[in-house]
Amino acid sequence: MKETHHTPPIAVVILNWNGESLLRRYLPAVIDNTPGHIGEVIVADNGSSDGSMAYCREMGVRVLDLETNHGFAEGYNRAIALLTHPYILLLNSDVRVTPGWLEPLHDFIEAHPEVVSVQPKIRSERAPESFEYAGAQGGYMDRLGYPFCRGRIFATVEEDRGQYGDGEAQEVFWTTGAAMLVRRQAYIDAGGLDASFFAHQEEIDLCWRWQCLGHKLYVVPQSVVYHVGGASLSAENPRKTFLNFRNNLRMLHRNLPEDRLRKVFRLRRVLDLLAAAVFLLSGKPGDAKAVLKAWQDFRSSKPERRPIGDRAQAYKSLYQHSLLLRYHIARERTFSSLKR
């Protein structure tokens, strides 16, 4: 009798570029804690010149050689186009997974067909008692486009004391690209990650498009992982500042309802100029220039506003107060203290 190959429902895809040291540190735990009947561990390589691919093959992991560095967004788009698994788990190479991390994510999304993406609770690998900046316990955004998390507002990251619940899954506006499980077909139908972003906030843009299409996204806190964060691009690098500001503007232009565009961009222009001034006064001229360059780049290459679902309905899911005012003026520094 001919043996048939069983394809598990989830492809756990780690995008890599010259990250051999991170793979050596974190890949073994991914392999050990990913049951073969649920997930297949795959490394998609963005044209690395170190020993990454050799190490992955030594570990018995399937490698997708993408040949050149396409960035985070296009790298994942190309990798996912090569796969047939019904679910894809996008996992950063600097994430430490824990025993039992995958099953709760799979079980929840499998039981809820209206949900297109879920994420685990994400704690910091550097400070394990705290949430991690990039995803914490699920993502949200205010009406001016400032992302925040349950457990992290701007630079204030909370200690995880179980204050946001560990039992029930919770609906969120966006799931983090550090560890996000998605329905492959929903990913493709929404256009995938925007390759023009290259890196940073592209997953929030995708999640916003899903919101416009009426889909739901959740955090499943029974699943816990630990994320280093900033392993590919330091927070002190002006390139990161440029990408965050530029991509945020592109995301707003693409997803805001028509009647909100002009007002939001008028306000953001003022606020971003203030941010540039703060960078300059803080002795960070490179970051100040990055903010101005972000606006220049955005104006010269605005993304096309294609029809996509109900932008007005998705806008109602945003936090309708100003996060900047609540944080800096009202001094509301934790998710639980924010005015509702």
TrEMBL record:
InterPro entries named among the record's database cross-references: Glyco_trans_2-like, Nucleotide-diphossugar_trans
Limits of the Glycosyltransferase 2-like domain: 12-124
Family to which the UniProt record says this protein belongs: Belongs to the glycosyltransferase 2 family.
Record keywords: Glycosyltransferase, Transferase
Keyword field contains Glycosyltransferase: yes
Top-level lineage group: Bacteria
Keyword GTP-binding: no
MF terms (GO), sorted A to Z: glycosyltransferase activity
Pfam family, one: Glycos_transf_2
Name listed for the protein in its UniProt record: Glycosyl transferase family 2
